[in-house]
Write a structure and sequence with these properties.
The structure is a single chain. 38% of the residues lie in helices and 13% in strands. By secondary structure, the chain is of the alpha/beta class. The protein has a single domain (6-312, 367-464), classed as TIM Barrel. The strands form 3 sheets. An 8-stranded parallel β-barrel has the order 1-2-3-4-9-10-11-13, surrounded by 7 helices. Strands 5-6 form a two-stranded antiparallel sheet. It has a two-stranded antiparallel sheet with strand order 7-8. Helix 7 crosses helix 8 (251-267) and helix 10 packs across helix 12 (354-363).
């Protein structure tokens, strides 16, 4: 039976996000991304078209070598300038009613206590429509902006992320019991302290006492996205994510990645369907096949290879992008391993080169055709196991306008896109319940802090007796 796919609009609070060079097109309004009205209008357009969510990517610094020139990035407006998505979501939350609002936040950029508070606040303001894309960073410059000498080693980044999510899960799920907020004017009790708990988290990086300051928001924990594709990235997703964002070069590669991650989720005590997969795809839409291919040629004229390579951090010590003919195996990177490994998987008949990364970034996740042909391709992706699509744009708002006008009606006719929103918070729309299910690791913190400890010494005693969760 055909199931509707989910659709997210993949965007970033910047000029040039994924499809580089296209900001120069006459109809590209992303050049004015500083204007909040651009985003409010886009969010309303997406909501009218019944998109599930607007998904904001984000970074905390420059790509490439941290000591290199960043002229190429500024010249392309490639994620510099870029603005904070979290702040923008407040404006979008009050301008929409059903659209999910996903933010990306790196574990290095915000202390988990503060982050948990910001997200709970946004989840209240949006009435339960916030999702968090958990990222560990890919940039040395981004790490240096937070006082680190360089990007933390790959596997240590994931250990860090594990402790980080542990802290926020404790705050979101364990610090406040249901029914703690009374608002009882008669008895003069606003909140019942006996149902609000300190968490006494103590781990390698964080020591957080609690309690969580906000009252529980509609979803408590926001919907959890994750986008790592390495082995440790996939393990982290399998343990924690409810939605995983992939940009696989083909349905076959996606299927392998999805099957492996679902199998891993079972190892972590979850069910295969507890985790959903969103493939990033861009679309070139024509009323006829010929028109679509003509448009694709025109799009190629705007595409900037330099921009795509710079985005993949394929930049040398002087800030110039690597010679496109350099073999990929000669590139040493601690950063975007996932991207490089996809390219190596996609190019099997010869030595993969730097230029293949640019080509694959813009071509393999691109679907060119009529709305019916696009629907046929989406059926193939669905058969590979994807649950939804992160629609990658060329121009704002035109790419989404066109998708909404031309493709979604055809998808709806074929049962591949929803016509109405399901009621309730984002997680309820997607999974049928506003709260994380009991198989998710965060669920173990529900009721786990009703221990009555009021000092760290008491908390340590309880921990020693196994009555308080130990640090992961
Ligand atoms: C499709 C996709 C989208 C991503 N989006 C972001 C992002 O917006 N911000 C960010 O800092 N990292 C982003 N990442 C990076 C990942 O979160 C992760 O840190 C990186 O891929 C390195 O981990 P890995 O080796 O497990 O892939 C993205 C990765 C992928 C694969």
């Amino acid at each position: 039976m055909t199931r509707p796919l989910r659709f997210n609009a993949f965007v970033m609070h910047t000029n040039s996000h994924i499809q580089h060079g296209h900001w120069r097109r006459p109809d590209a309004r992303q050049v004015d991304f500083q204007d909040v009205d651009l985003w409010i209008d886009l969010a309303r357009l997406l909501e009218d078209a019944k998109f599930d969510a607007m998904f904001f990517a984000d970074v905390t610094g420059l790509y490439g070598d941290a000591d290199a020139d960043f002229e190429v990035y500024a010249r392309h407006g490639l994620q510099i300038p870029s603005h904070d998505p979290t702040v923008l979501l407040g404006a979008l939350a009050v301008s929409t009613t059903d659209l999910g609002l996903a933010l990306t936040s790196n574990v290095a950029q915000n202390h988990p206590f503060n982050f948990a508070r910001q997200v709970s606040t946004l989840d209240h303001i949006s009435r339960g429509r916030i999702a968090w894309n958990i990222v560990t960073g890919t940039q040395d410059n981004g790490a240096r902006n937070f006082g680190l000498p360089q990007l933390t080693d790959h596997s240590e980044r994931y250990r860090w992320a594990q402790e980080y999510v542990d802290v926020v899960y404790k705050l979101w799920e364990g610090s406040w019991d249901d029914g703690a907020l009374l608002k009882d004017k008669e008895r003069g009790i606003y909140a019942d302290a006996s149902k609000i708990h300190k968490i006494y988290h103590e781990g390698p990086r964080y020591r957080v006492e609690g309690p969580h300051l906000p009252s529980p928001s509609p979803q408590r924990t926001p919907l959890l996205f994750q986008a790592g594709s390495s082995a440790s990235g996939r393990r982290f997703a399998a343990a924690n994510a409810e939605a995983t964002f992939i940009i696989a070069p083909s349905p076959a590669i996606a299927k392998r990645q999805i099957d492996e991650t679902r199998a891993l989720a079972v190892e972590y005590g979850r069910e295969p369907d507890d985790i959903t997969f969103f493939q990033g795809l861009s679309f070139i839409i024509g009323d006829t096949e010929i028109e679509a291919h003509e448009k694709a040629e025109e799009y190629e004229r705007y595409a900037s290879t330099e921009g795509y390579l710079a985005h993949s951090a394929l930049v040398d010590k002087t800030g110039r992008v690597y010679d496109p003919k350099t073999p990929l195996k000669d590139i040493d990177t601690n950063t975007a391993r996932g991207f490089l490994s996809w390219t190596s998987q996609a190019v099997t008949d010869r030595e993969p080169l730097v230029e293949d990364v640019a080509l694959i970034s813009r071509r393999s996740s691109r679907v060119v055709g009529t709305p019916d042909q696009i629907a046929d391709r989406l059926v193939e992706w669905q058969a590979a196991g994807i649950d939804g699509v992160n629609v990658v744009n060329w121009v704002l708002p035109g790419s989404f306008e066109e998708f909404a006008e031309k493709v979604l009606p055809v998808l709806r006719e074929r049962g591949l896109a929803q016509s109405e929103y399901a009621p309730g918070p984002l997680r309820q729309k997607l999974f049928g319940s506003p709260l994380l299910n009991e198989r998710h690791p965060a669920a173990r913190y529900r009721g786990a802090f009703a221990h009555g400890a009021t000092t760290w010494a008491e908390a340590d005693d309880l921990r020693a007796q196994g009555l308080l969760p130990a640090a992961v």
